[in-house]
Amino acid sequence: MKERFDPSRRDFTLASALAVLSGVTITITGCGGGGYGGTNSEPYGPSTPAPTPMTGDKVGVISANHQHEAIITAAKLTAAVGISLDIRGQADHSHNVELSAADITAIAASQQVTKPSSTSSTGGIYGDHLHSVTFN
Q1: Are the CB atoms for 42 and 34 separated by under 8 Å?
Q2: Are 98 and 84 in contact (CB under 8 A)?
Q3: Number of helices followed by number of strands (H, E) in the chain
Q4: What global pTM score does this model have?
Q5: SS3 for 61?
Q6: CA distances from 32 to 5, 25, 47, 49, 90 (A)
Q7: Which residues pair with 71 in a beta bridge?
Q8: CA of 3: how far to CAs of 6, 28, 54, in Å?
């Protein structure tokens, strides 16, 4: 029987950081809970539907995601000016991603842009952390 590898948070964070530094793309999927064996109602309370992107919006992929959402509306893409994008989504804390006018223009042209978020210092179950957000 094979042993199941269950990395600690520290092991996972280290492996993720090394993968990011080596240029590997990491996609994390889950069942929508807050992790740690919880249900959809833990630790954020009752689940609410995520906003549905409209035609022309761009949705970013967020590393080590725990209910954050990164959506740039079509109107912001058309305006082509720099923005500070709040990726709070359904999470219990916010992060901002700074995107320049050149970043917005590249994203609108379907070019890949990856940016780090601001660091959250809320503590809690996730501790101080940041995310990497990729738009294709």
Answers
A1: yes
A2: yes
A3: 3, 7
A4: 0.61
A5: strand
A6: 22, 21, 9, 11, 10
A7: 59
A8: 9, 22, 44
